[in-house]
Specification:
- 2 copies of one chain form a homodimer.
- Chain A is an all-alpha fold.
- Chain A has a single domain, classed as Tetracycline Repressor, domain 2 (Orthogonal Bundle), CATH 1.10.357.10.
- Chain A is elongated.
- Chain A binds a DNA duplex through helix 3.
Chain lengths: ~210, ~210
DNA sequence: CTTAACTTGGAATGGACGTTCCAAGATTCG
DNA sequence: CGAATCTTGGAACGTCCATTCCAAGTTAAG
């Protein structure tokens, strides 16, 4: 059917593009930088992704698929409740503040701040990302409630909204070089008031009334 | 001393530049757009601010001085405690989601995401902004504690870190068109657990023990 | 083996970028 | 009034931008 097939793997190319867009942002990234990073030519880039906006949208989708979705799925499915939320933020802060992508922030978070956030295709990705994060948080909180980890007064939806919104703040501040300890303090401060106070009596069966 | 003085007011010019940088971001804004917005020529811009980076830094400083500092000062000095924090976020969300700058987010928040955040001069502004916000939050929480508005278990520093970090998330999500109600829910979810439970007995003098 | 279909590298295009330079205008000093 | 000094508008600079185009290369179909 096709006399010739692509000589490259689009997903690998997208991973290269992600790294450039992630670090530099969309408007500050030129086509030449993408050509150099991906190793293929302008023609192939344009034939595959249309134009720069299309390549950016594809790269952002790839980022979400590779980085966000697995973390959200783990958070959502974990049976450990509050511990899973702690692990989520611990891993997040670890990645943001040390290792090969330290100081890059989160590509989705960064995308909010640029002019690309006005593009409807991008905005759809941002909104879906936010909703997925928030519902993963809500799911973990629901698990935590079942485990008796939460204070009775906690509103699951409101708490999920807080934690999801807080995550953007953590990502953002990490890009300006905020210390990991500072970010951890903010996360801890948000989690502490959710936690059920340890029962004064050693009967671990139910939350004490009132 | 000077055979000719500037024919313009630098602060007014900066206000014009702020509007352009704020909405479009630094890398997506060209000199031509700044010339058009300010009404003065390239020569005068370069003579006054050095180059584009200098103009951006000056504009960011002007934004902080004009928008952030007054809000932070009001938050810090208000005698109303938790109410002042609520007012801060209510005003914030109102400005972000409706009116002439709706959908622009916060220029300082936006600055975190771009490559400009790597510039040491910019990073200094970002760090100072964050510290000022956080200490204003901490001050308002201290006032709230004095008014008996806070649950006894609340750690003022941790709560201030949460609220300051959350503000960045609110600013960011507003730029992607998040609904005001959604943002208000996140803020409310962060404030509710801080609040002292109303005393069951009508003696408003002290928080009930335990 | 020829032909058609498709990818690929690299040159070419026009426009916008940030920055510099210079002549002209304006004002204060001698 | 003349000279010096600074600002101003606008042209000019070379570079990089995103995008298009074309010839060469490669493979499947006939």
């Amino acid at each position: 059917m096709s006399p010739d097939i692509k000589h490259f793997n689009p997903d690998v190319v997208l991973d290269d593009a992600v790294r450039v867009f992630w670090r530099q942002g969309m408007p500050a990234t030129g086509i030449q930088a993408l050509v150099s990073a991906t190793g293929l030519s302008r023609s192939s880039l344009y034939a595959t992704f249309g134009n720069k906006d299309g390549l950016y949208a594809a790269a952002l989708g790839r980022y979400i698929e590779q980085h966000s979705t697995p973390a959200f799925a783990a958070l959502s499915a974990a049976p450990t409740g509050l511990t899973a939320i702690e692990d989520f933020f611990t891993g997040l802060i670890g990645v943001r503040c040390s290792g090969p992508v330290a100081g890059w922030g989160c590509m989705v978070t960064n995308a909010h701040a640029g002019p690309e956030s006005a593009d409807p295709a991008i905005r759809e990705l941002l909104d879906a990302h936010h909703q997925t994060l928030q519902s993963a948080m809500r799911s973990a909180l629901h698990t935590a409630a079942g485990l008796g980890q939460l204070a009775a007064s906690v509103d699951l939806d409101a708490a999920a909204a807080v934690l999801a919104t807080l995550a953007y703040g953590v990502n953002l501040r990490s890009r300006a070089g905020a210390a990991a300890d500072t970010l951890r303090e903010a996360v801890a401060g948000a989690l502490v008031p959710l936690r059920a106070h340890p029962a004064p009596a050693p009967t671990p069966q139910e939350v004490p009334p009132q």
